[in-house]
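A reminder from the course coordinator: this example appears on the midterm review sheet, so study it carefully.

Given structure:
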């Protein structure tokens, strides 16, 4: 059966729809967490491009965090085999070699299992150290651990690698999780967001969330509630970074 290839324009349309969906989910998570989901109604599609780039960069960073230990384990294993060679199996051309094939399959499963243990140990050690040094927050540690687990499944699980539909499902889950993580990082960094001083003086402390269509989205976080308002650039006296 010959599968029909998608036209280039249709493929670009599908990829654009997926990318836009990722960005919409991220911003929906962000503004829902601030109880300001209504802000989504004023955002244009062009606004979501930066969020798509952030999510892709986040996925690549976590993939590298998993891929580097995997490559390191394979390198160390090759060095260990070079120093202490393992016994070699000789396949017979006339027989079914059932026992040898079984041993090879067991050896492969053992390799994958110990490689996964090695990757988990290295990555958990890294994020634990970063958390202890207050470089990343506890929610970021949790999100990173979940993403590492999903990526490790994609790279090592035989069923996921063979089943095309299951692989796409896991990739979709990865994209959604990375999107929510990106929004969580944005929430965690609110305290270091730039501060806006309005020309019309008030007693509130406004921080800049985003800018859209010549306007700026401002947030004021009080002890018991948070308020958001949208002002024109002309209404702002100055914007300064917080230290």
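Designed residues:
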């Amino acid at each position: 059966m010959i599968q029909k290839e998608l036209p280039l324009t249709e493929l670009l349309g599908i990829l654009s729809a997926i990318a836009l969906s990722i960005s919409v989910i991220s911003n929906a998570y962000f503004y829902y967490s601030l109880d300001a989901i209504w802000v989504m109604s004023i955002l244009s599609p062009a606004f979501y491009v930066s969020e798509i780039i952030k999510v892709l960069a986040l996925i690549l960073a976590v993939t590298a965090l998993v891929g580097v230990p995997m490559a390191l384990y394979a390198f160390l294993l090759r060095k260990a085999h070079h120093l202490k060679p393992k016994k070699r199996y000789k396949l017979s051309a006339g027989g079914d070699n059932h026992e040898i094939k079984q041993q090879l399959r067991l050896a492969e499963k053992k390799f994958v299992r110990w490689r996964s243990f090695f990757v988990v140990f290295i990555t958990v050690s890294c994020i634990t150290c970063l958390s202890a040094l207050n470089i990343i927050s506890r929610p970021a540690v949790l999100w990173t651990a979940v993403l590492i687990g999903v990526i490790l499944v994609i790279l090592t699980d035989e069923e996921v690698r063979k089943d095309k539909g299951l692989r796409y499902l896991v990739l979709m889950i990865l994209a959604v999780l990375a999107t929510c993580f990106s929004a969580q990082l944005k929430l965690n960094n609110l305290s270091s967001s730039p501060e806006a001083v309005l020309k019309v003086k008030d007693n509130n402390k406004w921080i800049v969330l985003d800018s859209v269509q010549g306007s700026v989205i401002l947030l004021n976080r009080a002890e018991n509630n948070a308020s958001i308002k949208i002002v024109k650039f002309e209404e702002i006296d100055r914007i300064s970074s917080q230290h």
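The CA atoms of residues 62 and 148 lie 6 Å apart. Residues 1-6 have pLDDT under 50 and may be disordered.
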